[in-house]
């Protein structure tokens, strides 16, 4: 309903998001999610233990839960969702949940369903013609209802934190935010408000849980077709994997990168907007113009990644088998508004996947050559097909 510009290919995307990062740092309109947070939060706003220890601890919890399947066929969506969701919970609430906790499972169910629904054709229509959101029935109402559930859950936790807050001893993200709210309570322009806190935490759940768990789920599906041998040689079976191992495991590192490149999780990025009138590649873009950056055109560029439609860890290995970085690897976007959780996501994907593969052989229920990795939904995100597998202890 308003002018938008699509940037296709690495050179155009890089020039906008990196070389002119400030000018392209505005957030474009994305109607259905905006309805949730009203422009607040971090995704759609314009404005003593290491974390590795926690990821390793959560990886061990994940392995113990997978052991309980006793090698029987299982559908891994919720088990794989528990680990990244617990990581976000530990940052926000300083607490973790048992994988069978019903409140925890309800929360993940809403987040999982929303990624699937946001990728449906109807939501693409709603985002294109936002006036229909308020007037027509449809699955967009279900998305808003799911987000309301998440927000009400967050509000309960915020109230608990307010009752037990010690400003000299912040426990987690919510405490830090509440302390900042107290410090700025006389500032009429302060962005530190309860409404903003709830929106920000809801964003952290949406962006930090389902993206990582979907990548893990897609990754295991791909690994059912492709074996992984390096873990035994470098780590063995006696200790947990750590991030230092990554530099000695170029093939595993390449596999994790190739999973993200191949699945192309968020194909058209989150929309950007130009923050001022600007001339870009001989085109005049007025301030506020929506910019859609095709990450697919970068991640599947055949000059950088030969046969990009094929899953091939060799895309990230040189002739000697060493890991090869690529400027074209931007599943987290790039520039001023790239994913704030990229570092945590890299750590989670590497440690969760290597810990699973260290402890289990993955057994498909069908012949590997018959496994279909085509996404069941392609819109806002690429959603992997439902599948079952067996985790066979080694």
TrEMBL record:
Location(s), subcellular: Endoplasmic reticulum membrane; Microsome membrane
An annotated GO cellular component: endoplasmic reticulum membrane
Chief localisation class: endoplasmic reticulum
Protein's UniProt keywords contain Oxidoreductase: yes
This enzyme's EC code(s): 1.14.14.1
Cofactor section: heme
Organism domain of life: Eukaryota
UniProt keyword list: Endoplasmic reticulum, Heme, Iron, Membrane, Metal-binding, Microsome, Monooxygenase, Oxidoreductase
Family, similarity comment: Belongs to the cytochrome P450 family.
Protein's UniProt name: unspecific monooxygenase
